[in-house]
Fold this protein.
Amino acid sequence: MVRAGLTVERVTLAGAELADEAGFAQVTMAQVARRLGVRDASLYAHVRNLEDLRGRIALLAADEKTLLIAEATTGRAGKDALVAYANAWRAYAHAHPGRYTATQTPIPIDPALAAAAPGPRRAVELSYGMLRGYGLAEPDLTDAVRLLRSTFHGFVALEAAGSFAHARPPEDTWSRALDALHVLLEHWPTSRAGDSS
């Protein structure tokens, strides 16, 4: 029997909140059930298993992060768009560390569920749209997206792990890194002959 008031959205949100508090790897069906005050078995009326729940958390987080980036970058171009995009990415990682980890963790997700979620698709559109402002086209667009994702994720992951022990504030380094990325994007090297798109 389905417990009154329990929905797939409530179960997913409870899992996302637990991920932020304890870490994404600590999300279990038992812990989510305890958080909701129900028996473990009650969750299976809403999610198939732990993998399904974690996939739903990842999609929820992708939607949230993408919305934050979209709001930050609307009406901006060039360096202003790059900085707004990057700052929104970092802000989400700081505010929701467990959910952020879910967005960076390879998880098998039901194709129908993934297709219905706007976040991942919109994230690609936002990334490519922002980079087209620098005059990039394929295959350079894909290379630039990979560079930005690697830089942003690497920075926030190291920051979260407490790896920046130097006296210089991470905020200063972040700002300079964005300056450097802007210069690089403005002077992107020409694709070599034979590069595939």
User: Anything to note?
Assistant: The first helix runs from residue 8 to 22. The domain at 59-186 is CATH 1.10.357.10 (Tetracycline Repressor; domain 2). The chain is about 70% helix and 0% strand.
